Give the backbone structure.
Amino acid sequence: MNRIPKAASTAHTCKKYKNEAEKMNALIYGAKIGGIDCQKCNNRGVIYLMQGDEVVFKKCECWKVRQSLLRIKRSGLEKLLRKYTFERYEDEEPFQKFIKQKALDFLKDKSECFFIGGQVGCGKSHICTAIVGELLKQGKEARYMQWRDDITRIKLNANTPEYSALVEPFKTVEVLYIDDLFKTEQGKSPTTADINIAFEIINHRYINSDLITVISCEKTMQELMEIDEGVASRIRELSDKYTICVNKDRNKNYRLKGVW
Ligand SMILES: Nc1ncnc2c1ncn2[C@@H]1O[C@H](COP(=O)(O)OP(=O)(O)O)[C@@H](O)[C@H]1O
Ligand SMILES: [Mg+2]
Ligand SMILES: [Zn+2]
């Protein structure tokens, strides 16, 4: 139960409402989220009541679901989470069984980092999203970093006051999902700026062992080492037994299933 400062009293000027709590319950509306339309709290997540002559509020029974949906919205993964789930991940092929088992073990182990690199279309983004979906369900705050888009935005703001506001959330959020690390336009090599920003983010997460990082990358760990050993070796150490490299083999591209 939380006390809130007594509002400037307008309650008794309005005869319809017996007290301020009743008035607030009737007049203050929150926002509908994820299709939840709660009549009990008018979508505020809290219900006001009087305690003596003080207005207090308690959490509504919809509070938990509402918070979880808000976390999903803030993560930037709202749409993908519906599609890329463990349930929808097929594991007929041995390499798919291996990937799925690693992902499940990673969650069970509460490990710090999951890295999957290699073949395009083999389900890297699918499995990473499924992992992050589970972590969100556990109540963790997550952020989705689409490497190519986000890094472009960050670089455009280099040497401006906005720079740290853009990078900081990726450094500090409880769960960071980097999709397609070091992906560039037309397969160009990552620039020094790309590498420096990756280092800033990864190194911060490397030092803070309570943070979780989930990474998908079209490069294998070996290729990543060639780009930058500082970044790659930190990821390698963090992800430890949850480092997966899918060898480049078009038969593993789900998008081409049945094509050959
Ligand atoms: N094992 C799988 N089961 C179900 N769908 C899959 C599987 N692997 C890949 N897909 C689907 O194929 C498409 C490409 O997968 P994606 O995860 O984006 O590949 P990658 O990130 O490795 O390039 C997505 O629509 C994804 O849902
Ligand atoms: Mg992908
Ligand atoms: Zn409610």
User: Anything to note?
Assistant: Confidence is low (pLDDT under 50) at residues 5-14. The longest helix spans residues 94-109. The beta strands are 2-3, 46-51, 54-59, 113-118, 142-146, 175-179, 212-217, 243-246. Residues 2-61 form one domain.
